[in-house]
Request: fold
Amino acid sequence: MNPGPVNVTPRVRRALLKSDICHREEEFSDLMSDVREKVLKLFGVRSTHTVALFSGSGTTALEAMLSSFAEEGKKILVLSNGVYGDRMKNILEIHDTPVETLKAHPGSFPSMSQIETFLKNDDSIHGIAMVHHETSTGMLNPVAEVGRIAKKNGKTFLVDAVSSLGGERVDFKKWNIDFCAGTSGKCLHGFPGVSFVIVSKKEAQRLKKKKARSLYLDLAQTLRHEDRGDTPFTPAVQIFYAFNEALDELKSEGLRNRIARYEAKCALIEQGLTDLKLTFLVEKEFRSHVLTALRLPEGVSYEALHDKLKQSGFIIYAGQSELKNKIFRVANLGDIRDSDIRRFFTVLKKALKQ
Reply:
């Protein structure tokens, strides 16, 4: 019950056993092209966006997205209300990019009027970056509203949707998303090890004129290679096989049905947590459908609760940063069934009593 690596189906796991192939042969070129096509088709952006695939975790895609877009002397505004918003800021600072951060406490978010004021007072800002699902709290941030502000003010909009793509609604066109980082090992139900950046074709053209700020993470170089069926570096071939299978599973299920399944699993979890009289960190209207954060009951340590649950086969997740030892997190990403969730609550109730 943690936010990744997630439980995968036997079908996806079996895909790891396919034949070893050389990544410079047409077999891998075909595989990579299939994965790219399926990602774009899945989110309905084949006509407006393209996608670059990387071997690495979601942070690989995130750093590729931010460092490739960044320019000397031009600021990026980061909207942060948790660990992963702060990570965007840290990445940009490492790459010597001017960055302004508008912060909010965990469980809240900067107001739209604050963002508008920030942009009016600083015309050197050329991009806005934010997290869709802030995994450290389970809060779903208002991407649609910020996207409207970005478009109104002529700013490029960059979104970390690593833990929401496939489990939450994401509308690239209506929300004016120019760049979006995602990964195989979350709500798309693959193994960790393949990540991707979906980028608008307009921004992809602009990238070609920029000086590279990284070798491995350069989006422009990666797109040039992948557009001709090549890859700049050795990819995680077997993980690509499994991700391709996971995308086929999602196609069979249907994206809307997958999202509805996440909503149903979340409702089951929320009911069980309410019955146990546990306190939610985030108000219901702002919670995601993929992860729920709870305050630790008085007198209960995270370590003790974690270890009791692990003895029965369930892994929960700790709080991070300022929320460490204050909350625990229950995720329903991946191949988790209603029967698993009901069994979890039987075990959780017993563990809390002990």
Notes: The CA atoms of residues 179 and 283 lie 28 Å apart.
